Amino acid sequence: MSSxxxxxxxxxxxxxxxxxxxxxxxxxxPLFFDPLSLVVDNFILAAAYVVMALGLNIVxxxxxxxxxxxxxxxALGAYTIGWFASDHFSxxxxxxxxxxxxxxxxxxxxxxxxxxxxxxxxxxxxxxxxGMLIGLPTLRLRGxxxxxxxxxxxxxxxxxxVNGDEITFAEGYKLTNxxxxxxxxxxxxxxxxxxxxxxxxxxxxYWFCLVLVAIVLFVNFRLRDSRLxxxxxAIREDEVAxxxxxxxxxKTKLLAYATGAAFGxxxxxxxxxxxxxxxxxxxxxxxxxxxxxMIILGGLGSIWGVAIGAILLSFIxxxxxxxxxxxxxxxxxxxxxxxxxxxxxFGFLILLVMVLRPQGILPERRRALxxxxxxxxxxxxxxxxx
Amino acid sequence: xxxNTATADPGPRLSDTLREAASKYGLIAVLLALPVYLAISDxxxxxxxxxxxxxxxxxxxxxxxxxxxxxxxxxVYGIIELINFAHGDVFMIGSFVSFGLWGTFGITQGMxxxxxxxxxxxxxxxAMVVCGGLNVMIERVAYKPLRNAPKLAxxxxxxxxSFILQNVGVLWLGSSQGSVPDIxxxxxxxxxxxxxxxxxxxxxxxxVTMPLVFLLTTFINRSRLGKAMRATxxxxxxxxxxxxxxxxxxxxxxxxxxxxxxxxxxxxxLYQTSIWYFAxxxxxxxxxxxxxxxxxxxxxxxxxxxFIIGIIQQLAEFRIGAEWTAVVVFTYLVLIMVFxxxxxxxxxxxxxx
Lengths: 386, 353
Hints:
heterodimer; A: 386 residues; 58% helix; disordered C terminus; B: ABC transporter involved in vitamin B12 uptake, BtuC; two-stranded antiparallel ribbon; disordered N terminus
């Protein structure tokens, strides 16, 4: 790549070229499929998962803080749109509802209805704060303790999502609808263009999500090469050394949590709107591992690798396991569908990648060095093979 | 004993001692908050403590099972500083194996007490062997190749392993929660002390777990292998220089942890009379909380933490609602992590430092 561009103005901007080519290709892709087909649906999910995986990559890949509770941010983002773009709070404003640029259709419904872009802003604020709150207790901890605390937070949020229908406030509003789901959620209605309608075409959702992917890619690259990004990587490699070189640990770590969380929240809000329902069942621990598996498969810290890992696992999850290989066990005379094993398959993939190729499909050079030559990356377990 | 030895070390400073005491007793105060609050509200409303007593009895017997699982976490953490995430699922496999075996042996209440005890002992031993072997295998496959990798790597494979074991459970008995025959009359009232009742299950849980805990501590404190384990935990490199086979020692640690999980699997089955592939994950997290509460790496701490978490779990289940139990337990986990990561009787570790 670099040699091909050696003497052109694009030298040193290989990532920009790859991004433009990849996103253009991705944008044209759905034109070859029926606008309502399952394929486009899979594309949308894949794009939404790319956003989440790149968010988690900031926390785990860049800053080296293993977060096993990422699903919490997905949940909070989704509930933000559940609360602020549906008829959940139905008797607000005397049953007339509260609307801000909500679009023609939603403007006549009861409940709170904000424009999707406003919801995204609210989601980023809520989830960013939640990310910092979850990050705070882990600041003094290192390594695997962080993983457990984040896992505990993820589980706590999940229980609140499931049992939230028992918690009522004000005029009998429930916190969540638990497994009954908050539904329907307003569709995306952007200014200047026609409202998105999933009964007519899924393409606008996809293109919108691609814009999100482009933004998250841009932010990821810019952050990685910024002062903050270098501070994250320094913390990942050696926290004590980073601190003694003047990296403010508290601020840097909290920013990693908040930024990573924000992308989870944006993607959660988008998925809530696209799926038109926010169901507590989606927010289980397994989902955190699903996203984690994406970044491990792709290569921790490697932006393109993570994007590829996310696309790959998303298709495995929503296409290959349920559609293509689901009947395989029955053909072999075994009495089960492959879908019940999907988390086992992810677990197996994680195990396989970690043992055989810990740097992932498309490794980041620096990270690969850490893994193979034991450079940085904190303390390896102090037992060495004889 | 000369009195005029001038010492350069003035001893710990008062402020440090105070802070230490505040963090230790602060945690104890947080732990006591829930039971004390419930005791007062019981006294005010009903005038006696019978309900609380019953909760405590159930909590202790439940805690004994948690302690067995927690010991597995603490043993492994003590020696290679790894949270063996798959341990809870090994415990789950233990309950599945026990269930399968007692079906094979046809153990029923018709066998009489002696026959049943003998049968269940055999089942327990076999489950212990299977789970011990399984745990050793997990270590070989998932952790050993990663000993030189960054610390997060084996933790991630541990999570992967946990999911694989859960799906083994799904394939084995399906994904819904099942119930098993109550062959020991778990809920039969054995004693009634002023309203506080003790069931068969409570006696069984303590009667099995306490000897096992005793055997384990004796083994680790007295035997040659136990000494090797303690040496490896302290400093693997030095241990190797002293001629200890570190790899074997680590395998043995996993074997012991797995055996305890296997035994716990059977007791859990008899005590809860339910079986579910997901039970291991939940119980594992709760047991891990117990291990951390006591001070991870510390055997006594794991047992103490097991009892405390058992009681908290029962109180939460009966007083707040079973669906909120996990929230209560995990809130305690976060509180401990924040305020006293070294646990009640643990020492400062590198992780928690």
